[in-house]
Predict the structure.
Amino acid sequence: MRAYLERVQKQVDKKLYLALLAFLSFADTFVMILPMDGLLASSAMAKPRRWGLFAFATSLASSLGNLLLVLLVSHYGTPWVESHFPGVMTGTLWQNIHLLFFKYGMIFLFVYAATPFPQQPIAILAGLNQYSFGAFLVASFLGRSIKCLLISYAGAKSPGLLRKIWGIKGELKDVGLEHKVGDATSIETAKRE
């Protein structure tokens, strides 16, 4: 764990890291295998003072990636979806999303965007039904912002919270996150000591 966090710390300090984080969040809409929640949390853990910026960049880029998917689907239609996202329009998840989307509209879109569920089905559904691009972007961004803010905040505060809740001290020191009263909880602080 310590080696992983040290690698993240080295990358977080680079000037283009925020752009890379945003790009990966954008690309996650199309790749679907990137561990963005873990990357966001570990970024905030490595640089706690930037947790809000990490959350903002990630949620904005994710929303823009989802909007691009909506635009592509609305332009190319079902054949494009079936060739690029095989099986996404079948199964229980699709049926449930379809039902809830038509019943609750933008409210459901907002709530769904705040969940850890894959965003592709809701974006595809919005694109196939020519949903308002502006409304989609607003609902997606607000929902993703809530999710990303919670994850990023938890990443930034987790070492201190673990120490307070469970009294974990040695384990935090072992991974380079020793927390002393009055100090910020981060690898950065541990390295300065």
Notes: The longest helix spans residues 51-84. Residues 2-192 form one domain.
